[in-house]
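Q&A log
Question type: sequence-to-structure
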Amino acid sequence: MRVAAYQGRCTGRLTRAALAQLERAAPDVLVLPEYFLVPPEARSHREAAGHAEAGLRHVEEVSRRLGAVVAGGSFVERDGSSWYNSSPLFDSGRLLAIQRKLSPTERELLTAGISPGTETRVVAARGVRFATLVCADVLERGRFARLGERGVDFILVPTLSPLRAGEPLEAKRERDHEIFLEGARAAQAVVVKACGIGSLFGGRLQGRSLIVAPEGFLARVPISGEQRPRLLWTDVKRRAPAVAAS
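Response status: OK
Response body:
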């Protein structure tokens, strides 16, 4: 199974050039960055919610065109009086699940009024199990182990990382090991992290996308490439067929 992480700016949709690159790579699984479905003209989370339907249609089309499982980054979802940072998962144009971010950041909670999701969805497709953790959801260490207990094969992680100017390289490496490599080992699953670059809602971003398995990193953006668009992909072996999702 070929898995890919697309590192790029949050633009609301993939460009023709990016789509052509993805078609050449032919991934079975693709992860887009957090808030990727927010177009640049949206100046706030509430404005972004008005673009949710268009973003979902775009991911549906991309998934169908690639014939792939696509974690479409995330969008701002309004449900009654509540607002969520939600990540859609499609398979060949069919919606499998929408995962609401479990651990919104302080800015999301206090400034944007984003509410936390209440459950982690696990879905079975193509003989394996998928789950999505949105950005800061990975910081709760026990989540990886609990997904392992549920037999998850792939953990998809749409992410936005604020730029940390002057942060030592070793600190970046340690964080990748402590969160993502140890997470993959705790879950005994492949973790696919896709990062946004550029800026969003007035904040600058840094991207360090990666694909990691319990045995180690399979693909990763070098530190020198944190500000550049990048497509990571690699082929991984399937595990035993999954049973019905829980």
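Response note: Residues 142 and 183 are 9 Å apart (CA to CA).
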